[in-house]
Specification:
It comes from Maribacter chungangensis. This is Pyridoxamine 5'-phosphate oxidase family protein. Pfam families: Pyridox_ox_2 (PF12900). The protein starts with a strand and ends in a 6-residue tail after the last strand. The chain is built from 3 helices and 8 strands. The chain has 155 residues and is α+β, with helices and mostly antiparallel strands. The mean pLDDT is 90.
Length: 155
């Protein structure tokens, strides 16, 4: 059976993960790409970064985006959250502050979930090696909803 997740359950799923699928519009076409993110519960926003390119150009042109995050145990047992957001690029010392939050937050989640201890931002994205500084951005949450599927007797 498929049911709605409560708001608190949606936020918990978002906070306990660091990989999602970012949906954005480029030109007249929708695009979806995987990203590494950190959910800042204090500020109720998603923090991420990227090298300059197609995705960043598209979000600069059209700020409305979505993020989908899921936990899949099996075809019969999963949770999924869809977040509608607006894109905001950060700069200077503010960007450094959020990049630090991102790095620390994602490292802590990875360590808690897998026992691995990534040391550098390059561990999160090899695309940035030898390139200019990343574009740090936040996705301000406008709406969040979620669904889950479980077998009878669970939840």
């Amino acid at each position: 059976m498929i049911k709605d997740l409560k708001q608190a359950e949606c936020l918990e799923l978002l906070a306990n993960n660091y990989l999602g699928h970012l949906g954005f519009i480029a030109g007249r076409s929708p695009h979806v790409t995987p990203i590494t993110y950190f959910f800042d519960a204090e500020e109720r926003c998603i923090i991420s970064y990227s090298a300059n390119g197609h995705k960043i150009d598209a979000m600069r042109s059209y700020e409305f985006v979505s993020l989908q995050v899921e936990e899949v145990t099996s075809i019969q047992e999963w949770k999924s959250v869809l977040i509608h957001c607006t894109f905001a690029e950060e700069a200077g010392s503010t960007a450094k502050k959020y990049l630090h939050k991102f790095t620390t937050g994602v490292r802590d989640i990875i360590e808690r979930k897998t026992g691995e201890k990534p040391k550098f931002i390059e561990d999160f994205s090899s695309k940035l090696k030898g390139r200019e500084l990343p574009v740090v951005y936040r996705l301000h949450i406008k709406d969040i909803s979620g669904k889950f599927r479980c077998t009878e007797g669970k939840k």
